[in-house]
Amino acid sequence: MDRDQRHLQLLSKLQILFGILNVLVTLIFYSGLKELSDAARDYLGQTRPELQVSLTIGFGVIFFLIGFAILFCIILAGQCLARYENYRFCFIVAICECPMFPFGTLLGIATIVVLLRDSVKQLFLKNSQESQPAS
User: Fold this and answer.
1) What one-character DSSP code corresponds to residue 55?
2) Which of 106, 117, 87, 96 is nearest to 14 (CA)?
3) What does DSSP assign to residue 134?
4) Dist CA 77 CA 55 (whole Å)
5) In whole angstroms, what is the distance from residue 7 CA to residue 65 CA?
6) Which residue among 24, 44, 80, 108 is least crowded, i.e. fewest CB within 10 A of its CB?
7) Which is higher by pLDDT, 32 or 26?
8) Which residue, 59, 71, 1, is CA-closest to 33?
9) 50-to-11, 54, 64, 90 alpha-carbon distances in Å
10) pTM above 0.85, yes or no
11) What is the pLDDT of residues 8-29, one digit of tens each?
12) Distance (Å, rounded) from C-alpha 133 to C-alpha 135?
């Protein structure tokens, strides 16, 4: 059991670090992209109607917000791993990390392998039973 707790604590720290670093990289990437989009907006404004320019920028903002939501979920899953809570959520986030090659893939697979252990499932189950109020 001690081995599982150490693995979950390590995975928790790695998940949180991975999420924070991705947020920082995303912010840097989109700040550079904003400068490029300003120049592109001027060009598109000359060649396309205003509605198409608005749609292009709008979809960029939507994808940015979806990316931030995914990164928030990764950080939240790291916190849940540390507290042995929300087994299903942690498992789904680990699966969703796998396409984020290469580090997300490694972290997602490692998290899935640890979460599939029966002793880890029991640890999450025990914690969820303790947190429920007695009736």
Assistant:
1) H
2) 106
3) P
4) 33
5) 31
6) 24
7) 26
8) 59
9) 47, 6, 21, 43
10) no
11) 999 999 999 999 998 888 888 7
12) 6
Compute the residue count for the chain: 135
Q: Which residue type, as a one-letter code, is found at position 34?
A: K
- 94-102's contacts with Cβ under 8 Å and 24+ in sequence apart are 96/70, 97/18, 100/22
Amino acid at residue number 47: T
CA distance 15 to 22: 11
The DSSP symbol for 49 reads -
At position 65, the amino acid (one-letter code) is L
**Per-residue tokens: 41:** 């907006």
How far, rounded to the nearest angstrom, does the alpha carbon of residue 117 sit from its chain's CA centroid?
22
Spell out a b/e string for 117-134, using b for 16 or more CB atoms within 10 Å of the CB, else e. Answer: eeebeebbeeeeeeeeee
Q: How far apart are CA 135 and CA 82, in angstroms?
A: 27
C-alpha 66/C-alpha 109 separation (Å) is 22
Find, among 123, 131, 99, the residue nearest to 12 by Cα. Answer: 123
DSSP single-letter state for residue 117? S
